[in-house]
Amino acid sequence: MSSFLPEFAFSQAAVRVRFAPGVRHDTGAEVERLGCRRAIVISTPGQVAMAHDLRTDMGEFAAGVLPLAQMHTPVPVTQEAMLQVGQMDGDCLVAIGGGSTVGLAKALSLRTGLPQIVLPTTYAGSEATPVLGQTEDGVKTTLTDARVQPQVILYDAELIRSLPVSTTVASALNAMAHAAEGLYARDRNPISTLLATEGLRAFRRALPDVCRNPRDLTARGETLYGAWLCGTVLGQVGMALHHKLCHVLGGSFGLPHAETHAVMLRYTIAFNATATGALLDPMREIFDDGDVGHALAIFADSVGAPRALRDLGMREADLAGAADLAMSAAYWNPRPLIRDEVLGLLRSAWAGEDRSQGGRG
Ligand code: NAD
Fold first, then answer.
1. What confidence tens digit (pLDDT) does each residue in 241-256 have?
2. Rounded to an integer, what distance in angstroms lies between the CA atom of residue 41 and that of residue 55?
3. Distance from the CA of 278 to the center of ligand 1, in angstroms?
4. Ligand 1 site: residues with CB under 6 angstroms?
5. Helix axes 165-183, 241-253, angle to 10 degrees
6. Which of 49, 231, 256 is nearest to 127 (CA)?
7. Predicted structure pTM score
8. Residue 79 burial class via C-beta count within 10 angstroms: exposed 0-12, middle 13-18, buried 19 and up
9. pLDDT, tens digit, for every residue of 126-142?
10. Between the CA of residue 261 and those of 75, 133, 186, 253, 273, what are the distances in Å?
11. How far apart are CA 53 and CA 8, in angstroms?
């Protein structure tokens, strides 16, 4: 199966992206460049010190700090943040943090029209997509809207040095999952395949160095480059079974976002490798292994990734329900989905088995 499509469409949002250690010190200048005066700085409660440092650094270009972001962007939190935004006299948003912080900035931008500058501190990649997931009454829904795409992304490797190694590994595998599923996406195009391949290559090369020395700025910078590439793929093409399962496990069973991706990746890609012919060849080449499920397992183990859903708090009794949810409103997938095979895949991932039921590929 050839990966080249003779006809394709490619669209790209007008996003300004900068990579440089210390680029956060230009945040005020970027606010001005957007034609704005005063930014509201958004973070999680855990990163409020980082947000205050940035606010101080921005001087007159900062209106204040809003440290309210939470995982999965709960709508009641956004509503509370909206009240505060109304009192802060800001004309743009600056998000400093991971996917949760970017989620709140996107939710506020959707409701106010304020432009966004993002300083990512994980590899989740949300800053590179026009996608927003929000949770209300225990249900997570996703929307795609050009209005939530941040206008400016500042990748500062100094900011991500504090990300603990275990979170670093999980977040990196989360990013790699966007690229892996992008390679076999139904609406892939030659550009998305280039981006996915280069993103995977960056993590393959730099993540082991980051794990050896989390303060290595060069390796951190290369992983951020990988995160941007992989996130751009996520914003460009549709995702498949891997993302659907992670959405179900996180949204309905409360499993942690990045860690769930990290566990599932070896199983879902092995499962789909049997139905994707040459489309995963870039991964086979990058990992120098014809069996991509095996290659991902070796790589994930080598950087100490979590192996089993049961270690993340998943109950065995909930696996059948998760399989049912994955089958309802299923995403398009290159391998036709049979409920018992999906359940078998989940059982393998729950137990942390060496091989999934997908077989070699
Ligand atoms: P996160 O943003 O929740 O961060 C995890 C934890 O790490 C938080 O407590 C955070 O404060 C802390 N942290 C982040 N960076 C740090 C740093 N440099 N140093 C120390 N601590 C740091 O987790 P995430 O995995 O980045 O994002 C997950 C969320 O993003 C989910 O809600 C997911 O649905 C969403 N997401 C959305 C998209 C999209 O395109 N819409 C893409 C990916 C993820």
1. 999 999 999 988 999 9
2. 7
3. 33
4. 44, 46-47, 71-72, 97-101, 103, 121-122, 124-126, 129, 131-133, 159-160, 162-163, 167, 171, 234, 257-258
5. 140
6. 231
7. 0.96
8. exposed
9. 999 999 999 888 777 88
10. 24, 16, 21, 14, 17
11. 45
